[in-house]
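Blr6922 protein structure dump, as promised
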Amino acid sequence: MRGVRMPHGFVYILVSPNSDHIKIGRTERPISERLRGINGGEAYAAHGPWELSDFVHVTDSTVVESATHRHFIDRKVNVEGTNELFSVAPHEARKELRRISAPLRVDSERTDQLFHNPDVILFLFNLFQLSGLYGNLDMQGSWTLSVLPQTNGGRWFTLNIGSHEVAFSTRTSTDGKFSHHLVLDRLILEYPNTIMWLGQHGGDVRRAEYKAAERAVSVSFDEDFARAERFFAREGVRRAMVAYWADALADLRERHAKSVYARYHSYDAVSQLLEYKRARDKVILSP
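structure tokens r here:
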């Protein structure tokens, strides 16, 4: 006898600058599709635009959504045409959603294995922060993060924007150092000190093999993760990264295009990176 298939999916929290309430819902479709539907629908559009505040990828989205709704049932708001609005502070809702969903996270073992090394999560945090991916969480599936992918030689992660591979770090180390690869705009060539630094750290700059990205170059260097994240602060790196990544993301958003690698995307890893960012921001901003 076959077991009953659980509604594998997402539970999300949405906020809007035009509403004092939050929306707590679920979907088995990509979050980007659901968000477009909500902002385009008559019931919720009047209170929008709605933006993603938090999300979790879970093995049973019905159970997690129902438990979260029950927890805040006394603060549910009755607005005609809606069924999931609550008068709850976003941070309070996020905390409860994370607590309820923890045992049901999808592919959590892989995420936890990657982030067991605190230097890896710091590296990815800085990469997301610098590139603007934190501001494009609603586009997951157009850009993708695969965790510990099965590749020749092994990788810690691979980041794609559309079909283009824009960042990865190998798992094979030499003297504790890993090989890190990033695709940037050719603006980086205007910064000779940074180019020299790459050469001094076992790397180089090559033309990226993407016909649709004539300005793209691939840079590489060898370093352990604790020191690798310092590359993002080097002269010209932010400018060159934003020039290429932001343009590629804007193009995908305009076309509502999906990456061919969407099925490999780790929503759980991104969710944990978002939680890491909030915890870090709280420490930095606290008096």
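Residues 109-285 form one domain.
lmk if u need the other ones
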